[in-house]
Amino acid sequence: MRVNGKQWHAPKKAFRPTRGLTSYEARVKLRADQAAMKAKEKEMKEEKEAERKARMEALKAKRAAKEEKERYEKIAEKMHKKRVERLKRKEKRNKLINS
Protein backbone atom coordinates (compact mmCIF):
# COMPACT_ATOMS: atom_id res chain seq x y z
CA MET A 1 0.00 0.00 0.00
CA ARG A 2 1.26 3.48 -0.88
CA VAL A 3 1.76 5.89 1.96
CA ASN A 4 0.04 8.87 0.33
CA GLY A 5 -3.02 6.86 -0.59
CA LYS A 6 -2.79 7.11 -4.40
CA GLN A 7 -3.04 3.42 -5.14
CA TRP A 8 -4.05 4.01 -8.79
CA HIS A 9 -0.51 5.26 -9.66
CA ALA A 10 2.08 2.75 -10.76
CA PRO A 11 4.60 1.98 -8.02
CA LYS A 12 7.93 3.73 -8.53
CA LYS A 13 11.39 2.43 -7.88
CA ALA A 14 14.34 4.34 -6.49
CA PHE A 15 16.35 6.25 -9.13
CA ARG A 16 19.76 4.65 -9.58
CA PRO A 17 21.69 6.05 -12.56
CA THR A 18 23.51 2.88 -13.57
CA ARG A 19 22.27 2.81 -17.17
CA GLY A 20 24.81 5.39 -18.41
CA LEU A 21 27.76 3.97 -16.55
CA THR A 22 30.18 2.03 -18.70
CA SER A 23 33.63 0.77 -17.95
CA TYR A 24 36.66 2.84 -18.92
CA GLU A 25 37.85 0.14 -21.32
CA ALA A 26 34.49 0.16 -23.10
CA ARG A 27 34.60 3.97 -23.47
CA VAL A 28 38.16 3.88 -24.80
CA LYS A 29 37.27 1.15 -27.27
CA LEU A 30 34.19 3.09 -28.44
CA ARG A 31 36.26 6.27 -28.94
CA ALA A 32 38.91 4.35 -30.88
CA ASP A 33 36.26 2.78 -33.10
CA GLN A 34 34.66 6.16 -33.78
CA ALA A 35 38.04 7.76 -34.55
CA ALA A 36 38.88 4.95 -36.99
CA MET A 37 35.50 5.32 -38.70
CA LYS A 38 35.91 9.10 -38.95
CA ALA A 39 39.41 8.70 -40.44
CA LYS A 40 38.08 6.22 -43.01
CA GLU A 41 35.24 8.59 -43.96
CA LYS A 42 37.71 11.47 -44.32
CA GLU A 43 39.99 9.33 -46.49
CA MET A 44 37.06 8.33 -48.71
CA LYS A 45 35.94 11.97 -49.07
CA GLU A 46 39.47 13.08 -49.99
CA GLU A 47 39.74 10.29 -52.54
CA LYS A 48 36.41 11.25 -54.09
CA GLU A 49 37.42 14.93 -54.20
CA ALA A 50 40.75 14.05 -55.83
CA GLU A 51 38.96 12.04 -58.52
CA ARG A 52 36.59 14.93 -59.14
CA LYS A 53 39.47 17.41 -59.44
CA ALA A 54 41.34 15.08 -61.80
CA ARG A 55 38.25 14.84 -64.03
CA MET A 56 37.86 18.62 -64.01
CA GLU A 57 41.53 19.19 -64.86
CA ALA A 58 41.35 16.69 -67.72
CA LEU A 59 38.23 18.40 -69.05
CA LYS A 60 39.85 21.84 -68.82
CA ALA A 61 42.98 20.62 -70.58
CA LYS A 62 40.88 19.00 -73.31
CA ARG A 63 38.86 22.18 -73.85
CA ALA A 64 42.00 24.33 -73.94
CA ALA A 65 43.63 22.03 -76.50
CA LYS A 66 40.50 22.07 -78.65
CA GLU A 67 40.31 25.86 -78.45
CA GLU A 68 43.97 26.23 -79.39
CA LYS A 69 43.57 23.81 -82.28
CA GLU A 70 40.60 25.79 -83.60
CA ARG A 71 42.55 29.02 -83.27
CA TYR A 72 45.47 27.63 -85.26
CA GLU A 73 43.09 26.31 -87.91
CA LYS A 74 41.57 29.78 -88.21
CA ILE A 75 45.05 31.31 -88.56
CA ALA A 76 46.02 28.63 -91.09
CA GLU A 77 43.15 29.67 -93.35
CA LYS A 78 44.67 33.12 -93.69
CA MET A 79 48.42 32.38 -93.53
CA HIS A 80 50.89 30.06 -95.15
CA LYS A 81 51.32 26.65 -93.49
CA LYS A 82 55.02 27.09 -92.65
CA ARG A 83 54.40 30.45 -91.02
CA VAL A 84 51.70 28.90 -88.82
CA GLU A 85 54.14 26.17 -87.76
CA ARG A 86 56.71 28.84 -86.84
CA LEU A 87 54.10 30.69 -84.77
CA LYS A 88 53.21 27.47 -82.93
CA ARG A 89 56.83 26.81 -82.05
CA LYS A 90 57.36 30.41 -80.97
CA GLU A 91 54.27 30.37 -78.72
CA LYS A 92 55.34 27.08 -77.13
CA ARG A 93 58.75 28.56 -76.34
CA ASN A 94 57.07 31.60 -74.76
CA LYS A 95 54.80 29.36 -72.68
CA LEU A 96 57.82 27.42 -71.37
CA ILE A 97 59.70 30.60 -70.52
CA ASN A 98 56.72 32.20 -68.73
CA SER A 99 55.79 29.11 -66.71
Automatic annotation (TrEMBL):
Region (Disordered): 35-71
Compartment(s): Nucleus, Nucleolus
Primary location recorded for the protein, binned into one broad class: nucleus
Keyword Nucleus included in the entry's annotation: yes
Transmembrane residue ranges: none
Keyword Secreted: no
Keywords for this protein: Coiled coil, Nucleus, Ribosome biogenesis, rRNA processing
Function: Involved in nucleolar integrity and required for processing of the pre-rRNA for the 60S ribosome subunit.
Similarity section: Belongs to the CGR1 family.
Protein name: rRNA-processing protein
Source organism of the structure: Podospora comata
